[in-house]
Predict the structure.
Amino acid sequence: MENSKVVELPASPEKKRRKLLLIIAASIVALSVTAVLVLSFSPLLAAKKIEVTGSKLVSEKKLLEALAPLEGVPLPRISESRVAELIGDEPAVDEIVVRAKMPDTLVVEVVEAEPVAILVDGKNSFIVSSSGEKLKKVVEKDKTKLPRVKASDETKDPEKFQLLTGILSTVEPKVLKQVSTATLTQAGFMELALPNKRTLIWGDGDKAALKNEVANIFLQQLKENKAKAKVIDVTNPENPVTY
């Protein structure tokens, strides 16, 4: 009996094509991984400059000093968590956004908490946020224009103070600029002192958009010397009361 021979058939064009695609895909992945590793440790992409934007309450110089350890670190290896760690506990900083500006610049964008008032406590004054947190100590040259809140039993009560600053955050900047002081009544309503010894009774934080609209009309009348009333109450903005 003669030995039988197994004849191998040539691979089909489809199988050859699949094999070629797999080889190409594997090569691309390998090259990508290699490129990432090279770029992650390459001194060519090291951070030589650091730029900070958006900082008003926090000193830019202070932030740059805190971020100094990142100089010389390859940009792809710098994460937002590392930047946040270096900045530390800065109450005025709400959020940070980190991006690279090739070839050698790290840009750190600072998103700060919105200031709503200045707490006056004896000889010290502090800019505070809508949550009642102290963001920055006010120095003599500081020209920040915000309503002043005098320290009292209400401001020493965190819940009441947060209520006041929370209501203040519903007042739009155009109105807020006209306010000299803000107080919280025992009923939990906010009262604002306006120019020319006028008083704006704001109430709580509800219906803020309509309250701002009414307040702006009153302020315009006050500017034009047409407002005779000393007090405007917008607690119920659909039916404001003046007297």
Remarks:
- The mean pLDDT is 87.
- The chain has seven helices and twelve strands.
